[in-house]
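FAQ
Q: What does a multi-component entry look like?
A: The components come first, one per line:
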Amino acid sequence: MTVPVKTPEPDVDFDLALKHGLTREEYDRVVSILGRTPTYTELGIFSVMWSEHCSYKNSIAVLKTLPREGSRLLVGAGEENAGLVDVGGGFAVAFKIESHNHPSAVEPYQGAATGVGGIMRDIFTMGARPIAALNSLRFGSLDNERTKFLLRGVVKGIGDYGNSFGVPTVAGEVCFEPCYQENPLVNAMAVGIVKHGRWASAIAKGAGNPVMIVGSSTGRDGIHGATFASEEISEESEAKRPSVQVGDPFTEKLLLEATLEAIRSGFLVGIQDMGAAGLTCSSTEMSAKGKSGMRINLDRVPARETGMSAYELMLSESQERMLVVVKKGHEEEVREIFAKWDLHAEIIGVVTDEPRVVVEYEGSVVADVPAEPLVLGGGAPVYIREAIRPEYLNEVEAFDPAGVPEAGDLNSVLLRLLGTPNIASKRWVYEQYDHMVRTNNLVLAEGDAGVILIKGTNKALAMKTDCNGRYVYLSPHTGGMSAVAEAARNVVCTGALPIAVTNCLNFGNPYDPEIYWQFREAVRGMGDACRALDTPVTGGNVSFYNGSPTATVYPTPVIGMLGLVEDLAHVTTVPFRHEGDAVVLLGPPGSGHIGGSEYLATIHEIVSGTAPPIDINREKAVQGACLDAIRDGIVQSAHDVSDGGLAVAVAECCFVGPDSSFGVTADLPDESLRPDRALFGEDQSRIIVSVAPSGVEQLRKICETRDVSFKVLGKVTRDDRIRIGGRIDVGVEEAKQAYYSGLEEYLSE
Amino acid sequence: MKEMTDRNIRFGVVVFPGSNCDHDAHHAAGALLGQSAEFLWHKDHDLKNSDVIILPGGFSFGDYLRSGAIARFSPIMKEVIRFAQDGGVVIGICNGFQVLVEAGLLPGALIRNSSLRFVCRFVHLRVENGATRLTNRCKQGEVLTIPVAHGEGNYRTDPETHRRLEENGQILFRYCDKQGRTTPEANPNGSLDNIAGIMNEEGNVFGMMPHPERACDPLLRYTDGRKIFESIINSFVRPATEPELVSIHNGGR
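Then the predicted structure of the entire assembly, as tokens:
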């Protein structure tokens, strides 16, 4: 028998605090809060709770400027583990997006897998059953072998976890830009559904109620994951691979079923999942929320290895665990529910009246800390950092698109754009995800957003993640607005009313004033758009420090948009459906804006200019007109115009999906523009719809009422050609081939 | 053999830890096909008087060690095996197919897809034997559209077993293209001879990698999976117009 090796505990002083990521000022505050030097365990507790990842200390002041109220919201942003929105019919929807960027940069498979696991727990800890998963992924150039390694690992990680867990992955985005080379972005979103009055809260109250740890046992994995997420990727990051947790989707599936059963039993007071900062975060946050405290005995925590110190037990980020407060006297019933699913449920402590978390281990008190000062919204530090408008903006704003030579053969430009990994079909990715389990996916890969049936009702939820990081880089405020607007436009195109937003804000180092300016401006843009579109922010996640010594990522505020389809008859998809239907552009003809476009980046290898401007009120009117027309039953197909502009959008309508393929003959909306700019410019607030010829007048009237521009561009044909404005004439099969093979070509072995 | 005409067929859906298509199978048999459906917990011994046992898709016991390898030791499997040996109808879908193979109720093995990647997509299946309890509502040679979703669906067996499967009409479905051609391109996982589903010699135990329960709801557009469920239900109706079923009931092929 081997003697367990106990991790030694060093003496605490400021140098050690500095190594834990605390500043002088923060360390002094810890000493003043405690009235003494913290123990080693306490230092660990403060350092993770005040890390950027847990405390949002550099972002919360700005986040508070976002609109966070609306008639549908059932809990406020940040109040619980996820946002909760009323969708009528006695149902509420819990949804949230979160980043797992840093873990995925060093260990793509486990990093991405545990990202999925973490966001799922945020949903079912509220009592909601997860019904759909989404993601938003960004990598460097696919010419780079490491990018392929990361992409393969991340996609397999997401797939293996989500597939086993049994929730369909229904929508998302995958983008490739050199700035994400060292620091990919892996954002995972989950959506769950719960009946009114059945949701649970992350609260500890009622002195004497037992505190239980349920699910997996606790190991040394993931210690300081939260702190690792709060610094830039560097040469040393590889050495932090042990900070990456290891996922077990099978246990998570058991935990899901047991948790929902336990919540239904009515024996729980509160429950919170253990994600970042594990037992530390869950115990202090639940206590602070309930204005109570806990007394915890770590000797009772089921450990998966011997010799763990109190510090390690408190900071472990072992996955698939929950902290539960049980109504006194019902411990046995709760234990039985978890035992049925072969899971631990051990009493490790008790709720107390005094608002402190007291931790005992091996006969002595190893931590005694007040809960309130530790947590976000309580006493955790809040900073407003210096912001300076970045120098590079002068340069990009001076860009003159007239200086871009017009490409000669626009047919080959269209084919190249259809095949560029940013635009090409992501089939290679989504076929590795089970996107059909639970038999609720109404549009498969044929919609601008995922559309999920709410079983037993005539309603559906539409959902999409979206952001164009290039736009945000070039024009942070406009780009922030566009991220919201496009996500909303996507769900509108499926027949849904956008109702609420979650967001994942991926930025560089907030201590760099130019980055902080990007952050502030992008959030201001998001807020403006969310207010105009009446889609309040229900919560989300901030990920700073995305960068390496060589590059900072584009500011990338990913929006997770939730929409509600009121009647299944409204569900609408991208592909054209009938020969002879009119192809109509809803929204402005556009100015041929190529700044920040995929055309400029791919064909001319220029990332410059400003992002396409957006008039958010016009955007709202266009979305309203589209939704009115869908609800009137006249829209056969709808597709938003985005990356690659009008030509790419019209082409996609011809061949997306397995069942059909049509041709199209269409005019350009504005013949006076330079053809390349008219075809590939990315002006906002535009939607391509097809309607039966008999519906055109009705559509025109809807547009007039909403004061929305309307133009019949042409019609759907059966002649297998895509013809646009006398400049594009390509075969549908050729275009389809380019679109479906673009990404796969890079990845075939 | 049971004879019945006017009562619902009772489907028992086994729930292993890690099953995740259990609700979909229950929903298809119950809500969509209008039959009775019950969940059967893997630790129990009670088959609740089921007429048909479904081992659903998912990742039983995480598919750790090997797909289906641990599930076959669950207490309920003792009863399922006895039920099958007594001629009861047992259907394994996806992970359920893997469990039946591990339990020795069906021949062969299911190994990793030749692409080494999980694959979720609609595939076409050619019905190779339209005269079984699982396919009597399909025509021989008919092409069905039903999705697959698996990482380990690559069917393998030795040449002798393969020959017997073929000769006995035990091969139920082959992966094919829209026109019914069994090309390598139409094979999503590298299965031997494009095999997508088989039955035992007696014709009462069935295994298939594709998910018929995912193609039953008209709201989801694809409904070919109903033909599988309707065939099973039909097979309990006293055969009048389909005398060939009698021989299968009696295991006399």
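Q: Is there any commentary attached?
A: Sometimes. For this entry: Chain B has one domain: 10-242.
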